[in-house]
Amino acid sequence: MPGVIPTYLRRNGQQLQLSVEHRAARGAERLPVVLKDNPPALALELIDQPPPAAPPAQPSCLQRIGQILAGATTPLSQRQVRDAARMRTSDVSKLLGSGSGPRQTPEARRARPCAGVDA
To answer: What integer pLDDT is reported at residue 111 of this predicted model?
Structure first.
């Protein structure tokens, strides 16, 4: 039957959950609902949920190197910094050697994406 979308109402303990299936796409997560008595009929009402928390922002390449150097108790070689930051040698050399290192002003430390870096 065209235009029919399968929906399922499930009960998990005292909580009711509504799920929707779709042939061509992944279905939405189960939606928590509550049964409301609105005379002369019964109705399902969606329970308000807080929005999911945003994932924490990843530090920039410069911030990662700064954290590694700040936490070091002994001097580190460029290779040790590169291995700890999991960055390319060329990216580490640019940041350490071009004046873009941790001694910058706060304005110059604005996050830049790490191009081609495995974080």
So the answer is: 44
Helices (H) and strands (E) in the chain, counts: 3, 4
Among 77, 88, 93, CA closest to 119? 88
Strand partners, 43: 36
CB neighbour class for 96 (10 Å; exposed up to 12, middle 13-18, buried from 19): middle
> What proportions of the chain, in percent to the nearest 5, are helix, strand and coil?
25, 20, 50
In degrees and rounded to multiples of 5, residue 17 shows phi and psi of -130, 135
User: Rounded to an integer, what distance in angstroms lies between the CA atom of residue 92 and that of residue 81?
Assistant: 8
Q: Among the listed ranges 28-32, 67-71, 85-89, which one has the minimum average pLDDT value? A: 28-32
Residue 64 has pLDDT above 60, yes or no: yes
